[in-house]
Amino acid sequence: MSVAASQKTDLALLLLRVSLGLMTFAHGFILKVMTFTPAGTAQFFVSVGYPAAFAYLVILAEVLGGLALIAGVFTRLAAVGLIPILLGATALHAGNGWVFNAPNGGWEYPAFWTVTLVVQALLGPGAYSVGRLLPTSLPGLVRA
């Protein structure tokens, strides 16, 4: 791959990673913590048949996973860790139909978000990431 093509790929990975991270962080912190509150989010989870404890795990995963994606630290692990959350959201919205403006939202958005996380997990963080600056000599450290 040429240098110019490699730079374009790394820029594309930066854009994908940061946009996924911002969306994930915003969904976890702004929506679930600031808007609905953790207790309100837990009540919603119970109302749709999920255990209340899952709400707190989802909030933690979305906030930390979003920050990890933004920084490009543990990118693959963060992306893979968020996939089950988006699969759960896709399943939750499956009965609402395809389109996002369907009552209670459609399933296409969380399904697409799942696919983008799979792509990010497969490709890794790219060159423009904080994870690339971490030392490699620490045992068990997974930078990408």
Automatic annotation (TrEMBL):
Keywords for the protein's UniProt record, in alphabetical order: Cell membrane, Membrane, Transmembrane, Transmembrane helix
Protein family: Belongs to the DoxX family.
Membrane topology annotation: Multi-pass membrane protein
Subcellular locations according to the entry: Cell membrane
InterPro entries: DoxX, DoxX-like_oxidoreductase
Family matches, as Pfam families: DoxX (PF07681)
Bilayer-crossing regions: 50-70, 77-99, 111-134
One GO CC term, this protein: plasma membrane
Predominant localisation class: membrane
Protein name (Swiss-Prot/TrEMBL): LysR family transcriptional regulator
